[in-house]
Design brief:
This protein is of the alpha/beta class. The chain has 9 helices and 9 strands. It binds zinc ion.
Length: 299
């Protein structure tokens, strides 16, 4: 006979008497369940010390990681969305926007900024997943298009950090038009010879993958990021087959030739600095004077 016997089954503490652990002190990795202090988690740029799981972060954290001394000028900071379709789902779209803006302290799902990375000028557009799933509506498209124009006019390299569930259904066709607009602006940037680096983070899907996210001179990604167009469940149901292991992970996408490299967030700033130095638009070199030697003009 055991020395301890459970008399009642299960946990019987009523919900209202349960003690909550205060938020913001500890971080538990969702992959390997390792616990670390928030301070340590932040010091490792929100990656796990044990399994290197990259936690999802927002534009504020990326700007802090990338820009020297967290100094930058935000572009088009006050642009907000209209409601051209008078869209209503469980809430009217303007109400949903207002509630999300209040909750996230963001105006829409992307922020664009000009700053310096290791002393090199850089324009960054970074998406925020917590704003309606990082969905691409008119404001996201327009802000990215304007940031690309700004980069082209000032001849500054452009970095896009994507994190999106795809098109914003509340803007339907207007959302889809952003794919064409941003892609056309990137074509102009390319023609002007200004570098474009696209970084895909967890998750990058839908219309974002199908437009600007895959158009970089370099397409790079964070480890383990989900990258795809349609989600795995939809694909599985459509093709009626099981999907290969690791399908749509950054590593799988790299292996199949759609990415140039995967970058650990702790090396991101240095690797971007190296890449930008290598790609930096140079002044048009003066034509090299060719002098024909006398001996070759003999005939
Ligand atoms: Zn972990």
């Amino acid at each position: 006979m055991s020395w301890f016997k459970r008399v009642e089954k299960g946990i019987v503490t009523p919900t209202e008497e349960k003690k909550e652990t205060p938020d913001g002190l500890w971080y538990k990795c969702p992959e390997c369940k390792t616990v670390a202090t928030m301070a340590e988690h932040k010091r490792l740029l929100y990656t796990c010390a044990k399994c290197n799981h990259h936690d999802r972060i927002d534009s504020a954290e990326y700007f802090e990681i990338l820009f020297d001394n967290d100094q930058f000028v935000e572009l088009d900071a006050d642009m907000t969305s209209a409601d051209p379709l008078h869209f209503v789902d469980t809430k009217a779209y303007p109400q949903r926007l207002a509630a999300t803006q209040k909750q996230t302290q963001l105006k829409d799902a992307v922020r664009t900024a000009h700053g310096q990375l290791e002393g090199l000028d850089l324009v960054v557009a970074c998406m925020d997943f917590k704003f309606i799933g990082g969905s691409m509506g008119s404001v996201v498209g327009e802000k990215i298009a304007r940031a690309i124009d700004y980069a082209r006019q000032h001849r500054i390299p452009f970095l896009m950090i994507s994190k999106s569930g795809g098109a914003r259904m509340m803007e339907a066709g207007y959302s889809l038009m952003q794919m064409a607009k941003t892609s056309a602006k990137l074509a102009l940037l390319s023609e002007a010879g200004v570098p474009y680096i696209s970084m895909l983070t967890d998750p990058t899907t839908g219309g974002v993958t199908a437009s600007f996210a895959m158009l970089g001179d370099f397409n790079i990604a964070e480890p383990g990021a989900l990258i795809g167009f349609a989600g795995p469940r939809v694909i599985k149901e459509t093709i009626g087959k099981d999907l290969p292991k690791g399908f749509q992970s950054a590593e799988f996408v790299l292996e199949h030739g759609f990415l140039d490299f995967i970058v650990d967030r702790k090396q991101l700033k240095q690797q971007l600095a190296d890449l930008i130095t290598m790609l930096r638009p140079t002044e048009v070199a003066a034509p090299v004077a060719t002098t024909r030697s006398k001996s070759s003009a003999r005939s």
